[in-house]
Specification:
single chain, alpha+beta, 4-stranded mixed β-sheet, 5 helices
């Protein structure tokens, strides 16, 4: 099984990194995530998610349906970033997305644009491996986490996902 997954991952590393850099280079302060949401939606479609939608809050949802529909696994990250703060605090642009000595730099790199890209590509890896899924895999990119209270996630859990059944 490992060798199958390893073979299917070749080539995805560079693509996932380039996508993460694109996310970092696209500003997405809380409540202003629409450009990143568009990038996520387009990437889900190009990676072969069978169902891709944007809910009325701006959350992006991609589904890889399983044979039986249950259980469902949810991978969820937020698209917004904290404020960049004072420019003097940055050695270079907070939107550089540069890699130096194996480290990716930029606003949102670790909170949570790299995590979001990793989840999108984890779903893509499952799809590429053509493993039969018993249940669904849902990858969601939510809005407004940095505001506190995670209103995007709350809407996803209380309204969007239940309405998808």
């Amino acid at each position: 099984m490992y060798s199958l997954l390893a073979a299917k991952t070749r080539g995805l590393e560079a693509e996932a990194l380039a996508f993460t850099q694109q996310l970092i280079r696209t500003a997405s302060p809380s409540s202003q995530e629409s450009e990143v949401a568009r990038l996520v939606e387009q990437r889900m479609q190009s990676l072969g998610y069978e169902e891709v939608s944007v809910d009325d809050y701006g959350n992006v949802i991609g589904v890889l349906p399983g044979r039986e529909g249950q259980p469902t696994v949810l991978l969820c990250s937020h698209m917004d970033t904290a404020d960049a703060g004072e420019s003097e605090a940055w050695q270079e642009s907070p939107f550089s997305g540069e890699v130096r000595d194996g480290v990716l730099y930029g606003l949102g790199a670790s909170d949570c644009k790299a995590g979001l890209a990793a989840q999108l590509y984890a779903g893509a890896l499952l799809r590429r491996a053509m493993l039969p899924l018993k249940g669904n895999v849902i990858v969601a990119a939510t809005v407004s986490e940095e505001q506190g209270g995670s209103p995007g996630l709350r809407h996803l859990m209380q309204d969007t996902l239940p309405s998808m059944d």
